[in-house]
Amino acid sequence: MAVEEAKSHCVVLIPSPFTGHITPMLQLAYVLHAKGFSIVINHSELNPPDTSNHPEFTFFPLKDGLSNRDPSFSNLFNIIPEMNTNCRGPFRQYLVEMMEEKTELYGKISCIVYDHLMYFVNEVADHLKLPSILLRPSSCAYMEAVCAFFQLRAENHFPLPESQLLDPVPKVPVLRFKDLPFALTSEIPEHVLKLLEKVADLGSSVAIIWNTMGDLENRALSWLQQYYQVPIFTIGPLHKMASSSLTSLAEEDANCISWLDTQAPNSVLYVSLGSIVVMDENELIETAWGLFNSNRPFLWVVRSSNDLPDGYLEAVGDRGRIVKWAPQKEVLAHPAIGGFWSHCGWNSTLESILEGVPMICRPCFGDQNVNARYLTHVWKVGLELGTDDLTRGVVERAIRKLMVEEEGEELRLRIHDMKQKLQMSFRDGGSSRNSLKSLTEFMSSL
Ligand code: UDP
């Protein structure tokens, strides 16, 4: 496709408002903009992007009345359906106006790309006879696990006795039942099941864009290709494919970088559980003392630092830094970082792999369990910390294993090797670059 031709095309993007979702959508916006598409972004009023950081794009807020809601985990299963109900009308109205009045400004709408949590889009696009493409910000492995879960459910496998939780899942034997998206020993609430069904469903979308690499997830990708029967474009990792990194929603504490500059290579453990997971009080205290007792330098993201033990910061002194939000990609790329204790969100997983930083895996919910299992048992670049209650002794031992002992060094060498191979994907002629070329041709043909 000639770039001049693409300039007459506009792509409308609908991100969901959670950091781990809006970030890859904004990265995709940069990728498509660099290919000549004009970009319109319709976003929720909850957690909106800072539009002044992205003057290249046109932003339009969807009046969903959710700006004051707390997007923490306990609220997600209520907020997501509400957001889908509330956004439908405003989005439809915006598209109608755009098609009637604004074609000259932005070009013809080529297609609508939507985050898989914003499933209302599919219905609106159908109604207006516009093609829609789904963006999956999760791993292929996770969606394969979700599909396996629904198949097993249809075959009446659940609820499952406790004693079977560690058994391999038929069809995806690398996973144990406990790695599937839900606790399977009790009935799953109907509204939660419905939501998962909607997220897994492709509706009438004509293709899927996946923030992953064919070179990383070949097996799960082939399976999903059979399952969905539409073109799948694997153009990840989007943070490396995009020309801009200005996509953080929260204010980053850049001071930690100058502190990292004073630390020895591979000596610092970076600890972050992403944007949604919160540690309970006991876990926070055990983690704090485990980090302290390990005697290793650490950089720890604690989004709310109120509950740290009294006197803790003084005791740690210059051996550690605690920040509310770190410039994570820059941190992981810093030579002083020798390990990453992570909740294994998909963005964090990709960012860590692509910087060659071995991980301590402490997943909490949803896709994190699947990603952690792949990190520890398939790619073998992470240590399993499990999901049981933490004690300071367990924390200290895991840190020593990763940062000091031979096992950690083996993981470091392996992930370094993985990084070297995978970075070919987003270079000229690599699998993600080729997939992006196919995607832009596909979009221009719609
Ligand atoms: N992140 C960051 N600073 C922090 C913690 C996280 O910039 O202090 C970014 C991280 O780089 C990643 C995103 O927030 O891009 C978190 O996404 P992920 O999918 O890992 O987890 P989620 O927040 O969705 O649980």
UniProtKB/TrEMBL annotation:
Gene3D superfamilies reported in the protein's UniProt record: Glycogen Phosphorylase B (3.40.50.2000)
InterPro entries: UDP_glucos_trans
Endpoints of the signal sequence: none
This protein's UniProt keywords: Transferase
Keyword Transferase annotated: yes
Coiled-coil ranges from the UniProt annotation: none
Top-level taxon of the source organism: Eukaryota
Family the UniProt entry places it in: Belongs to the UDP-glycosyltransferase family.
Listed PANTHER family: GLUCOSYL/GLUCURONOSYL TRANSFERASES, UDP-GLYCOSYLTRANSFERASE 76F1-RELATED
Protein name according to UniProt: Uncharacterized protein
